[in-house]
């Protein structure tokens, strides 16, 4: 029976507040970051919650995950103590914004725009497919043409581009956050979950032995840190370089994205350091 996103089974997907702003990619453009100075001795970091493995809210209210480990290391390198670091889900209120900065299916990303001032990348990954461990009927994107899929609007774009809007209307359940899809996949209300590989790794860890990665990746993804100036971008790149060199990046990868540790054996290449003036 066709899977219609308007059925009661998927209406409850809005379990978390929508990431403010139409997409994280939009938050990286300079106007959203302009004027967000670092005042009062506090660094406000924009993050995207609801992405296990990257950013997870613990029962005590603290945030944990690979993105948080990267953000904390960078903040300390910039001279901030842990009690001077705060997080927000609103990129317009942030001094720096951490997360994916390219958009699936667009063929480019705003890091190419000088005004974006994006440091990194600190992770180069892909959008992938997660299915139930015992389901052998899905081995790649082509097998999803008549399968029920749960994904955010951003992650589902490569499939919508491939299969069309009619497929979207019948087979796609759109969620605000990938974490909302996991229960649907676990109990059989959907056949596949599409999201960035680090998020899928985090969800897989929450359901031991019940899910598996399936097929080839859909599109490449880059994760970076948006800043408000060239100078700050360079300082953040220096901090990331230190994190790569001293082994902290590798340890964080194993701690939070363990299933992907063999996939990402070394840090991604950063942009070249700024040229030094002579004299």
Provide an overview of this structure:
With 279 residues, this protein is of the alpha/beta class. The chain has ten helices and eleven strands. Strands 1, 4, 5, 6, 7, 8, 9, 10 and 11 form a nine-stranded mixed beta sheet that branches. A two-stranded antiparallel sheet has the order 2-3. Helix 5 (153-163) packs across helix 6 (165-171). The longest helix has 16 residues, at 230-245. It is elongated, with a radius of gyration of 19 Å. Mean pLDDT is 81; it is low at 1-39, 104-115 and 273-279.
First-residue to last-residue Cα separation = 74 Å
Helix/strand-derived class? alpha/beta
**Total of helices:** 10
Q: Over all CA atoms, what is the radius of gyration? A: 19 Å
Q: What coarse outline follows from CA principal-axis ratios?
A: elongated
Uncertain stretches: 1-39, 104-115, 273-279
Largest sheet entry: 9 strands, mixed
Helix content: 25-40%
Averaged pLDDT, please?
Answer: 81
Number of strands: 11
H and E string: HHHEEEHEEEEHHEHEHEEHH
Strand content: 15-25%
Label this structure with key terms:
nine-stranded mixed β-sheet, disordered C terminus, two-stranded antiparallel ribbon, 10 helices, 11 strands, alpha/beta, single chain, disordered N terminus, 19% strand, 279 residues
Summary of the model, kept short:
The chain is α/β, with parallel strands linked by helices. It has helices at 8-11, 24-27, 30-33, 66-77, 153-163, 165-171, 182-186, 197-206, 230-245, 248-256, and strands at residues 43-46, 56-57, 63-64, 85-88, 96-100, 118-132, 149-151, 172-174, 192-196, 211-213, 219-226. Strands 1, 4, 5, 6, 7, 8, 9, 10 and 11 form a nine-stranded mixed beta sheet that branches.
């Amino acid at each position: 029976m066709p899977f219609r996103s308007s059925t009661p089974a998927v209406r409850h997907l809005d379990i978390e507040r929508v990431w403010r702003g139409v997409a994280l990619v939009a938050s990286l453009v300079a106007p959203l970051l302009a004027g967000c100075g670092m005042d009062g001795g506090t660094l406000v970091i924009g993050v995207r919650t609801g992405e296990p493995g990257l950013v997870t809210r613990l029962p005590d209210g603290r945030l944990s995950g690979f993105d948080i480990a990267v953000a904390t290391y960078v903040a300390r390198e910039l001279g901030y103590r842990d009690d001077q670091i705060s997080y927000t889900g609103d990129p317009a209120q942030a001094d720096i914004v951490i997360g994916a900065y390219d958009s699936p299916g667009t063929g480019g990303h705003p890091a190419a725009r000088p005004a974006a001032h994006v440091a990194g990348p600190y992770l180069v990954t892909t959008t992938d497919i997660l299915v139930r461990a015992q389901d052998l009927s899905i081995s790649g994107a082509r097998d999803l043409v008549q399968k029920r899929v749960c994904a955010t609007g951003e992650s589902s774009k490569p499939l919508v581009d491939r299969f069309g809007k009619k497929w979207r209307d019948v087979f796609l359940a759109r969620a605000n956050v990938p974490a909302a899809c996991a229960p649907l996949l676990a109990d059989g209300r959907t056949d596949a979950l599409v999201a960035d590989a680090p998020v899928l790794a985090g969800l897989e860890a929450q359901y031991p032995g019940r899910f598996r990665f399936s097929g080839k990746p859909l599109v490449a993804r880059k994760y970076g840190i948006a800043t408000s100036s060239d100078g700050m971008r360079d300082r953040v790149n220096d901090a990331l370089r230190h994190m790569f060199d001293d082994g902290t990046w590798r340890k964080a990868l194993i701690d939070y994205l363990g299933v992907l540790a063999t996939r990402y054996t070394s840090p991604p290449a950063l942009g070249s350091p700024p040229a030094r003036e002579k004299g």
